[in-house]
Design brief:
With 233 residues, this protein is of the alpha+beta class. Helices cover 25% and strands 38% of the residues. It has helices spanning 16-24, 28-31, 125-153, 169-180, 211-214, and strands at 3-12, 39-45, 53-60, 63-75, 79-86, 91-101, 104-114, 160-164, 184-189, 200-203, 208-209, 219-222.
Length: 233
């Protein structure tokens, strides 16, 4: 029991202000969350700059639970924290630090946490530490790769890209990759968008499509079709 601390720091070849800006863009959390973590964003209210919250649904074995985190202690270009408001642990404070190192940036993640009660309190602390090591190793590897793409292709103007199948396995990853690179994405869907949702409706059987929303697109990526994960090939 008690409070535990986990830290991981990585030096990246990207200026600190650009690394910080990457973390503020839509899709950053999703890009840093591996599929095997089984965590889905259910709701967002605001962002790190205004003390917003994010609610996740997390699956661990047969158990599902909601986890709400609040963004705190925002310092432009340098730091922000995520603190548990409601969730499975006794406490959770995740500090994101960005420290200039020459022309690069030292990215440091520090997590202070304590065990929860009930079923989650039965999870050994050593198992939580092991899971954190795997999670943040993935996060830092993914961050290095995505920042390398940004350095290679980020000099051009932001693009507006339409994507069919944007909620599928591949489409979801592509959507978040593009938004964290500074581009905007227009989902093209076979269901009518809900009120306030920005998406184009497309019925391939009748040929109906919201053509006015497609004006000004720089590219369309067509991923709609049969799922590649529904069964054996």
């Amino acid at each position: 029991m008690g409070t535990h601390t986990f830290r991981l720091a990585t030096l990246v070849d990207t200026p600190a202000d650009e690394v910080f800006a990457w973390h503020m863009r839509p899709g950053a959390l999703e890009r840093l969350t591996p599929a095997w973590a089984h965590a889905e964003v259910l709701e967002r209210r605001g962002g790190p700059a205004d003390g917003g919250t994010v609610t996740l649904q997390v699956r661990r074995g047969p158990t599902r639970f909601r986890w709400t985190l609040r963004h705190t202690d925002y310092e432009e270009g340098r730091l922000f924290r995520d603190e548990q408001v409601d969730g499975p642990l006794g406490s959770w404070v995740h500090t994101h630090r960005f420290t200039p190192q020459g022309e690069g940036c030292l990215v440091e993640d520090e997590v202070e946490w304590s065990s929860g009660s009930g079923a989650t309190g039965l999870i050994p602390d050593g198992l939580v530490t092991r899971d954190l090591a795997s999670l943040f190793a993935f996060r830092h590897h993914r961050l290095r790769n995505d920042l390398a793409l940004l350095r290679r292709y980020g000099a051009g103007r932001p693009l507006r890209v339409g994507i069919t199948g944007s909620s599928g396995f591949l489409g979801t990853q592509l959507r978040h990759l593009l938004t964290t690179q500074g581009h905007s994405v227009l989902p093209i869907r076979r269901r009518r968008p809900a009120e306030g949702e920005t998406a184009a409706f497309w019925n391939p059987h009748t040929g109906e499509i919201d053509t006015h929303l497609l004006e000004g697109l720089d590219a369309v990526v067509h991923l709609a079709g049969e799922s590649i994960a529904d069964g054996r090939w």
